[in-house]
TrEMBL record:
Protein name per Swiss-Prot or TrEMBL: alanine dehydrogenase
Naturally occurring in which organism (per UniProt): Agitococcus lubricus
Claim: Cell inner membrane is one of the keywords in the record: no
GO biological process, one term: L-alanine catabolic process
Gene Ontology cellular component annotations, sorted alphabetically: plasma membrane
Keyword annotations from UniProtKB, A to Z: Oxidoreductase
CDD domains listed in its UniProt record: L-AlaDH (cd05305)
Residue ranges of domain Alanine dehydrogenase/pyridine nucleotide transhydrogenase NAD(H)-binding in the record: 147-295
SMART domains listed in its UniProt record: AlaDh_PNT_C, AlaDh_PNT_N
Alanine dehydrogenase/pyridine nucleotide transhydrogenase N-terminal domain span: 4-135
SUPFAM superfamilies, alphabetized: Formate/glycerate dehydrogenase catalytic domain-like, NAD(P)-binding Rossmann-fold domains
MF term (GO), any: alanine dehydrogenase activity
PANTHER family with a match to the protein in the record: ALANINE DEHYDROGENASE (PTHR42795)
Length: 354
């Protein structure tokens, strides 16, 4: 199969879908791979690295989108959508619940859209998990930074000074991969951590890893009571393929003291914090009524080298399966199909207003 890998167009997005070693595996199995010029540069991979293992360098975006399969990181931009062709396969993070205009375009183009984030194996999301883990850890780092006074924060050190009972307090909504990784890192720094989730087994799994983390079944009243004492709130909820539910209302947000920070990792799926709007790495935070809001839609892009390596390792087995023409009969690949031949295939998208 002919496979195209474009350079990402999203603002400050430097990841590439596949590393040279992953592309080498595809080439060795007889596939032709076309990597857009400069696509790997931001992740530390040069065109010469891809040429050395047998890939071809495409001079521009159009030369990538003539191929049967396009593998990329983020949802296609307007420029990319115009280049898509009927029955072409697009494999990437689509997040169509948050991007109805992209959904409409994919339907109109009659593209087969496979979403990394909905591919499911034994009720797990193996292609979402590595980026969720990175996003969760980055959220704690970001929160630590913007709680500092020079950035507008309250001047709180999450770890505490070590000389007084002054550790910061972190509330996390969601105990999945992103939420758990955020909780574990925040605890390791020395913060007092409170995690809420509606799924008891997820809380139990987190407690088994670190018993000192406070875990609770979701309770809006309990959350409201705690917010006055919390320095950092991280929203990390997920419903596979669907719009994220609102778990932090605007009224609850006003319970936070001035100079505190809210980070919504779920912004890729519309966000779980009421009234929040998406930000980017150029300006990751905005302040409203004394509260900082961070909602970067491509959190792992801040660490493209690490993110690319993790993503490439995760997706390669499934890229190989698609390239080997297994899509029609492979039940795992079927879970990734969001749209096909102008038809919505994923249940979570069927009731969307277009």
């Amino acid at each position: 199969m002919r496979i195209g890998i474009p350079k990402e167009r999203k603002l400050l997005e430097s990841r590439i879908a596949l590393t040279p070693s992953a592309v080498a595996t595809l080439v060795l199995q007889g596939h032709q791979v076309f990597v857009e010029q400069g696509a790997g540069q931001g992740s530390g991979y040069h065109d010469s690295d891809y040429l050395a293992i047998g890939a071809q360098i495409a001079p521009n975006l159009a030369a990538v989108y003539v191929n049967e399969l396009v593998v990329k990181v983020k949802e296609p931009t307007v420029e990319e959508l115009t280049l898509l062709r009927p029955r072409q396969i697009l494999f990437c993070y689509l997040h169509l619940a948050a991007y109805p205009q992209v959904l409409s375009a994919l339907l109109a183009k009659k593209v087969t859209g496979l979403a990394f984030e909905t591919l499911t194996v034994n009720q797990r999301l193996p292609l979402l998990a590595p980026m969720s883990a990175i996003a969760g850890r980055l959220a704690v780092q970001l929160g630590s930074q913007y709680l500092q006074k020079q950035y507008g924060g309250a001047g709180v050190l999450l770890s505490g000074s070590g000389y007084a009972q002054d550790a910061g307090r972190v509330m996390i909504l969601g105990a999945g991969v992103a939420g758990s990784q955020a909780a574990l890192l925040a605890h390791a720094l020395g913060a007092e951590v409170y995690v809420f989730d509606r799924y008891a087994p997820a809380l139990s799994a987190l407690s088994a890893q670190q018993a000192a983390i406070h875990t609770y079944l979701y309770d809006a009243e309990h959350i409201t009571q705690l917010l006055a004492h919390v320095d950092l709130v991280i929203g990390a909820v997920l419903i596979t393929g669907a719009q994220a539910p609102t778990l932090l209302t605007q009224a609850q947000q006003q319970c936070l003291a001035k100079g505190r920070v809210i980070i919504d990792i779920a912004i890729d799926q519309g966000g779980c914090v009421e009234g929040i709007h998406a930000t980017d790495w150029q300006q990751p935070i905005y302040w409203r009524e004394g509260i900082g809001y961070i909602a970067v839609t491509n959190m792992p892009a801040a660490v493209p080298r690490s993110s690319t390596q993790a993503l490439s390792a995760a997706i390669l087995p499934y890229v190989l399966q698609v390239a080997h023409q297994e899509l029609a009969e492979n039940p795992i690949l079927q879970t990734a199909i969001n749209v096909e031949n102008g038809i919505i295939k994923h249940d979570a998208l069927r009731n969307m207003t277009l």
